[in-house]
Design brief:
The protein has 503 residues and is α+β, with helices and mostly antiparallel strands. About 8% of the residues have low confidence. It has ten helices and 25 strands. Strands 19, 20, 21, 22, 23, 24 and 25 form a seven-stranded antiparallel β-sheet that branches. A six-stranded antiparallel barrel has the order 1-2-3-6-5-4. A six-stranded antiparallel β-barrel has the order 7-8-9-12-11-10. The relative contact order is 0.08. It has three domains: 229 residues, Thrombin, subunit H (Beta Barrel); 87 residues, PDZ domain (Pdz3 Domain, Roll); 99 residues, PDZ domain (Pdz3 Domain, Roll).
Length: 503
C-alpha cells in the first residue's frame, strides 16, 4: 500500500470517529417521552340541567322498555313443508312483496320466526296468523326473555284479520297491558317491541304516521284491512310483536311493512288492538271466528261517484253489488246505495265499514243510514254468516257474431266503443240485457276509470241498458263535466259501479 493511501485511510477513520461521537452526544441529550399513567377524564356533562321534557321522554322510553319487553315472546315455527305463500327462510313469516326475481325454495321443512304478546299469566299468547301458518305438529316453540322455552299449541287463527292465539303451559307469566286503539292519534309517540332479524327483545321508537290504512293484505275481499301505520322500525321477525304507547299499553300488533327491498323503509303497519282483542277472545272461547256479513260488495266513494250519485260531498261507502239472498238483500239494500253510518257512527271508508261489521256476529242487527236517489233512509240489517258466492264463471270471449250484424256505437266523450249483445254472449255472461265493451281508448276517461274490453254495461244512471243506441243516447244527453254512473259486469259475474265524467 502506498504512503498516500495510508494517509487517506487514516483521515477517513478520523472523520468517521468524529461524526459518530457527535451523534452520540446529540442523542444523549434527547429525553424519552413516556405517556402518563393517569388521565383525568372529564365527567362533568356540558349540560347540567337537561330539558325536563326531553328527560321525561327519555325516562318514559326506558320505563316502557323495562316494563313491556318481558311480555313479548320470541316465536320459532317449524313447518312440515315449505309454504309457497310465505318467504321460507330464517325469518320468512312476514308479509311483504319480494319482487319479481324472487324464487321460492324447494319443497321441504322450513323454519320461521316472529313475536308474540303474552295476554294471560297462564300462557295465552297473541300473534299473527302468518307467523304460525303451516306449523308442523309440536312445531311452535316459544322463548321468553328469561330464557325459558316452551312448546306451544295452536288455539285458533283468523286469516281475515291475520290474528292467531297460541298457548304454553306455564304460570305467573308477565302479562302485557292492553290499551284502547280507538284513542290513538296521528303524531303520537309509539314504541315497537319484538324480535327482528334474529335480534331478540329489540325496541324501536317512532310516531303514528296514519290510521285506517288499507294495504290489501291477504288478497281476500273479506279480509279486514284497517291498520295503524308507524315509522317505528319494523322488520321480518317483528310480526306479532307489540306496538305500545308512552304508558306502555299495547295499542297494536305489528304485522306488515311496505317496502321495495324486503326490509324496513319507514312504513310499518299494526293491527289495532281493539280488533285483535275481540278476535282473540272468540278464538280462546271457541277456537274459531263466527263473523256477521251484510252480503254486499263495497268501495270508497270518490269525487266523480259522489257527483254522479247526487251526494253533496264525498262521503260514505258505495254499495256496488248486493248478493242475492244475503242480509243486505233481505233488508232492501240496492246497488248504488251509499252507506253513511252504522249504528250512528259515520263511515267514509270501505275498510272502516268492514271493521265495524266484522266485530258483530251472525244474527245481530245493525242500523244503517243509507243515501239513495237524493234521500236518506234507515235500514235495519240482520247479519248472516259468510256464504260463498256461487256463480258459474263465464268465458271471457268476444262476440262470435259478425260485427256488422250487431249495432255498435263509439262513445268518444268517455272513450269506449260498445255493441249490442248476441245470444251467445248473453248466455255466456248470464245476463238478459246490456251492451258489450268492444274497445277502450288508451288513457281515455273510461280507461282511467278501469273499463276494459270484455266487460258488459248493464245499467247507466240506474236505467237498464238494452242496446248500444240507448246507451249512446243517455250519454249524449249529458254535458261536458257531467257524470254518468255505469253498472258493469265482468266475466266472473262480479258487478261494480263506474262513474265517468263526460269529456
Amino acid at each position: 500500500m502506498s504512503k498516500k493511501s495510508v494517509v487517506f485511510a487514516g483521515l477517513l477513520l478520523v472523520v468517521a470517529i468524529s461524526f459518530g461521537g457527535l451523534l452520540i452526544a446529540n442523542f444523549g441529550n434527547v429525553k424519552q417521552i413516556v405517556a402518563s399513567s393517569q388521565v383525568d377524564f372529564k365527567t362533568t356533562p356540558p349540560i347540567q340541567n337537561a330539558n325536563p321534557q326531553l328527560q321525561g321522554l327519555n325516562d318514559a322510553f326506558v320505563e316502557i322498555s323495562k316494563s313491556v319487553t318481558p311480555t313479548v315472546a320470541y316465536i320459532e315455527v317449524t313447518t312440515a313443508k315449505s309454504d309457497n305463500n310465505q318467504f321460507d327462510s330464517e325469518n320468512h313469516n312476514f308479509p311483504f312483496d319480494l319482487g319479481p326475481d324472487f324464487k321460492m325454495p324447494e319443497e321441504g321443512p322450513g323454519k320461521g320466526s316472529g313475536s308474540g304478546i303474552i295476554i294471560s299469566n297462564d300462557g295465552y299468547i297473541l300473534t299473527n296468523n302468518h307467523v304460525v301458518k303451516g306449523a308442523a305438529e309440536n312445531g311452535i316453540k316459544v322463548m321468553l326473555t328469561d330464557k325459558r322455552e316452551f312448546t306451544a299449541k295452536l288455539i285458533g287463527v283468523d286469516p281475515n284479520t291475520d290474528v292467531a292465539v297460541i298457548k304454553v303451559e306455564a304460570s305467573d307469566l308477565p302479562v302485557a297491558t292492553v290499551g284502547n286503539s280507538d284513542d290513538v292519534q296521528v303524531g303520537q309517540w309509539v314504541v315497537a317491541i319484538g324480535n327482528p332479524l334474529g335480534l331478540n327483545s329489540t325496541v324501536t321508537a317512532g310516531i303514528v304516521s296514519a290510521l285506517g290504512r288499507n294495504i290489501q293484505l291477504g288478497g281476500d275481499s273479506y279480509a279486514i284491512n284497517n291498520f295503524i301505520q308507524t315509522d317505528a322500525a319494523i322488520n321480518p321477525g317483528n310480526s306479532g310483536g307489540a306496538l305500545v304507547d308512552i304508558n306502555g299499553s299495547v295499542i297494536g300488533i305489528n304485522t306488515a311493512i311496505k317496502t321495495t327491498n324486503g326490509y324496513y323503509q319507514g312504513y310499518g303497519f299494526a293491527i289495532p288492538i281493539n280488533l285483535a282483542k275481540t278476535v282473540a277472545s272468540e278464538l280462546m272461547k271457541s277456537g274459531k271466528i263466527s263473523r256477521g256479513y251484510i252480503g254486499v260488495s263495497i268501495k270508497d266513494v270518490d269525487t266523480k261517484e259522489a257527483k254522479g250519485l247526487g251526494l253533496e260531498k264525498v262521503q260514505g261507502v258505495l254499495i256496488q253489488d248486493v248478493i242475492s239472498g244475503g242480509a243486505g238483500d233481505e233488508a232492501g239494500l240496492k246497488s248504488g246505495d251509499v252507506i253513511l253510518s252504522v249504528d250512528n257512527k259515520d263511515v267514509n271508508a270501505a275498510n272502516e265499514l268492514q271493521t265495524i261489521i266484522g266485530s258483530h256476529h251472525p244474527g245481530e242487527e245493525v242500523n244503517l243510514k243509507v243515501f239513495r236517489d237524493g234521500k236518506t233512509m234507515d235500514k235495519v240489517v240482520k247479519l248472516k254468516p259468510k256464504e260463498e258466492k256461487n256463480s258459474e264463471t263465464a268465458e271471457n270471449t268476444v262476440p262470435r257474431n259478425n260485427p256488422a250484424e250487431l249495432e255498435s256505437k263509439s262513445l268518444n266523450s268517455v272513450g269506449i266503443t260498445v255493441m249490442d249483445l248476441s245470444g251467445s254472449i248473453k248466455e255466456k255472461f248470464k245476463v238478459d240485457q246490456g251492451v258489450y265493451i268492444s274497445k277502450v281508448d288508451r288513457y281515455s276517461e273510461g280507461f282511467e276509470r278501469g273499463l276494459r274490453e270484455g266487460l258488459i254495461i248493464i245499467e247507466a244512471d240506474k236505467e237498464k241498458v238494452e242496446t248500444a243506441e240507448q246507451l249512446s243516447r243517455i250519454i249524449s244527453n249529458k254535458s261536458k263535466g257531467d257524470v254518468v254512473v255505469l253498472k258493469v259486469r265482468n266475466p266472473e259475474g262480479n258487478v261494480r259501479l263506474v262513474a265517468l265524467e263526460i269529456q
